[in-house]
Amino acid sequence: MTHRRRVVITGLGIVSPLGCDLGMFWHLLSRGESGIKPITSFDTSPFNASLAGEITDFDPTDFIHPKKARRMGRVSQFAVASALMAGRDAALDLDQEDRDRVGVCFGTSVGGLKEAFEAHDSMLAKQYKHTNPFTMTTTFPNAVSAEVSIALGTHGECETYSIGCSSTANAIGRAYDLIQGHDVDIVIAGGAEAPLHPTIFSAMDAGRTLAPDHGGSIRNLPRPFDQTRCGIVLGEGAGCLILEEAEHAERRGARIYAELEGWAFTTDAFSMARPEETGKEHRRSIERAIAAAHWFPEEVDYINACGLGTVELDLIETLAIKAAMGSQAYRVPISSFKSALGHAFAASGAFQLIGTVLALQHQFIPPTLHLTQPDPQCDLDYVACVGRPRTMQRALINSFGFGGKNIVIAVSGVDVAASQDRLVHGGVGALYHEPIAAPALAKSPSTDLIQ
């Protein structure tokens, strides 16, 4: 009988609308601050929406050699930066590891589509002369995981997953499987997205998925589970987690944030644009994740909702939670981080998992913002507007994507007392005042990427 390997989280890295530092991210998220503001990178006057979770304080050369940074798309820059920060947070010295047993699993929905549109416009303007020779490697979704592997010098499996909004949840789940299957000991796993381009924005606006904000005059958006919810607000960014086999992490004396205990994946097979209205596959993914973790529904202490802010999906998610959890659905607190960060496609899954891990560590639930008029049909405990302290050990993360891809991840916290001791003596709270810097992870051919 094959020994069941436990999978733990030992490092976190974040590039988000609420900061590019773990301490800042948690501080603002837990306080109920919003990262949503008017877009500055392009003119939004032709559209019904003008708000986004835009990142304006990110400098890729803080992490990547300027020459290399120019040859990467924004999504790859985000991915590499978050991976370097996660490695530093994990105190991971890859020179002491077998690089053949270190993998990379990253998710992205649109990859370098932003750069592809920009290249197309440039080619037309220049009549296909002076085309950037790095256009293809900049725009491939493959670049997201490949650039992370190049930066860190890993030689294990290296894969990009692209299944829409659930891409990062899929990457995390596959990383879990790789470690459990004895293929690798460490996986650098996460997701990145940079969809803020006028063509992408126009397409989303034409599909009537974006929340209209009247030129930015309406700022209390998005509103998951609110009776007046009216659509999504786009976001961007990246998040990365260092996943390790538990005994490997313990041998090197790593700080352990949490343990991944299981995951589940189901598909609606219904529509690219709309969720199946009964929510039966959403329910099944929740039930299967609980079973994979060997939990009972009453053991779930918190659910991080997909909470997209659309009329249909918020109701379907509510119904699915009720069906899967039974009477326990009314007991468990739920919140949506998209109310503060927007919908960053694949990166949202990374934000969700990182935020949930920090919630378990701090024993505090960040709120669902702008939930002032609860929908009577969405009648669960959505931790509206103000966060709250809560004793928690086990949490579910729901990631439900376009095309009916439904993934739920089960994660449990470490011992609460030990966790609080780490916070005082050098855990994530100690990172709050540290400058953003890349970790000295490797002395490999990629050293020029790391500062």
What does this molecule look like?
This protein is of the alpha/beta class. The protein has 14 helices and 14 strands. The chain has helices spanning 22-31, 66-70, 74-89, 113-125, 135-139, 142-152, 167-180, 198-206, 246-251, 280-292, 311-325, 338-341, 346-362, 416-424, and strands at 7-15, 37-38, 51-52, 102-107, 158-161, 186-193, 237-245, 258-267, 302-304, 334-335, 364-365, 388-389, 394-401, 405-413. The strands form three sheets. It has a ten-stranded mixed beta sheet with strand order 5-4-6-7-1-8-14-13-9-10, sandwiched between helices. The chain has a two-stranded antiparallel sheet with strand order 2-3. α3 (74-89) packs across α6 (142-152) and α10 packs across α11 (311-325). Residues 416-451 have low confidence and may be disordered.
Keywords summarizing the entry:
single chain; Peroxisomal Thiolase, Chain A, domain 1; ten-stranded mixed beta sheet; two-stranded antiparallel ribbon; 14 helices
Any guess at the CATH architecture? 3-Layer(aba) Sandwich
Alpha plus pi helix count: 14
**Tally of separate domains:** 1
Which class best fits the helix and strand makeup? alpha/beta
Cα-based radius of gyration, to the nearest Å:
20 Å
Largest sheet: 10 strands, mixed
* Low-pLDDT segments: 416-451
Number of strands: 14
Overall average residue pLDDT: 92
As an assembly, this protein is single chain
Q: How would you sum up the global shape? A: globular
CATH fold-level name: Peroxisomal Thiolase, Chain A, domain 1
Strand line-up across the major sheet: 5-4-6-7-1-8-14-13-9-10
